[in-house]
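Class, look over these structure tokens:
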Amino acid sequence: MTDNVSQTAVGPRWASLASADPHTVASFYRAVLGWAITETNGQLIASAAGTPVADIADLATADGTPGWLIHFGVEDLDTALTAVSRADGAVLPSAAGGGAATAVVSDPNGTRFVLRAPTTRHSKWPAHGTLAWGELITDDVDTSAAFYRGAFGWGLTEPSGPLGRREWQTHGRSFSGLLPRPPAMPAETPAYWDVCFAVDDIEAAAAGATEHDGTQLMPPTPIEIGTIAVFLDPAGAIFTLVQLTTDEAVA
């Protein structure tokens, strides 16, 4: 374990979307999550509750892989990248940003995510529309556990519930989850880090997503941290809405 990284690589801090239709999906998320959207140098920046939370880029100018990428905060990016490499992860070419120093990396299973400096947190309780939680959906729990423990010092709780969901922790506090590939998930869907955006009313938000041409993959469903609903946006990117009932997600 790299101790100085384990104290800082914690909590989802940003999300980047590469989309074939960025302006359409920006309008979708504005309607569902109340985002304010601004455009700078061809990049769309989304804000919630007055705080920038995500960027949306055209797939042609991103790294060629559609969908959401979750960002985890670190205090020192170079140290974190060294820890990733030592734990058998990989550092990848990157177009992710949103105004901070970032690097796209992957774990040994090939699951991509972003390391981001600085690690600013703007509120103790995730406001409506902000990134509240991440969920690693994986085919290899043991390899995932070993990598994130070795690179960042993350702990992992015991499985709970019918799907064996676990929670990533630092200092005894949960900030994201791990879910073994559920039986209903199509085999052709690769393992991925899911982005979970906070909503005040999950039923209303889920209805709004459907009304604005989102595709519901899972209806509102209670889990340990609250109630979640999973969707595809109009361009086909997977994301999750969550109405929290615990403050575990504010690490």
The chain has one domain: 3-119+130-250. The mean pLDDT is 89. DSSP finds five helices and 16 strands in the chain. The longest helix spans residues 22-33.
